[in-house]
Write a structure and sequence with these properties.
This protein is an alpha/beta fold. The protein is built from twelve helices and nine strands. Helix 2 (about 40-55) links the parallel strand 1 (about 30-35) and strand 2 (about 60-65).
Amino acid sequence: MRIDKAVSEVRRAVRVNLQQALDDRALSAGDLVCAAVSGGADSLALAAALAFVGPKLGLRVGAITVDHALQSGSAERADEVVKTCMTMGLDPALAVAISVGRSGGPEAAARKARYTALTTVATRQQVAAIALGHTLDDQAETVLLGLARGSGSRSLAGMSPCDGTGAALLLRPFLGVRRTTTEAACAAMGLTTWDDPHNADRRYARVRVRLDALPALEAAIGPGIAESLARTADLLRADADALDELAVNVSSMAVEDLQELLPAVRRRVLRAAAVAAGASNGALAAVHVTELDRLVTDWHGQRPVSLPGGLVAERRCDRLHFR
């Protein structure tokens, strides 16, 4: 029987992503990989593709759904998602309820609470990797938001298809797949999807980018904007990774040593040093790193630099110190 084109595309994306992780030895045969499933088209297409592909590669497959408890009926909806995942053959299929705070705004607070919950479940259930349903469209939105913030190349590098910096490996197989494809795949497989009303709420910056900014750019410049932004993320990620690799071997905070570094490398060294000393990584912005850099390259006895997280950086005896 001929397989639907969209179904074939999402399965291929998952297979390539998992195989790369296996080839890189980030995953091993028998490991448990869980899809993070909200009930939307992206995550349901991911869950179905993982259920089909994972066992063929010798992996165990499961699912985790996070109940943000922000809307009425969210617990019942989470239970429905669990049942759907179980019928796909994803086992374990788990629901976890969370409490979303307010720090950093509603979007950031929900994201932080969600990732914390996923990490906690992954540790408890010995999950080797969590697969996330971010698509090419999500990547384009991320890059555009980064441009608006002026956050630098690391922010413009967007999301990585494989991120091993946390407690569990994070996989994003769909970064080359359009949202329309995941919707078509769900329709072809007869999966009933749920549209989160927050995804149409223009109070959120990402929604305004999705519904207003990107369509306006396509209308003004022409089609293919989302693909171009995603491609830009891929190119900048390779550059940012190379610069980070150069920076990771630098440990001296002596001004003389820092001045000898390439500016792009030096700024990464300063950012890493600030985070290691206790500055909040999420709140540490380009303006903070610029002021740190001025302590090295434009010194005229200025006051210490205040950093997020209650940290202060100062130049003393021709070295940078954090307190």
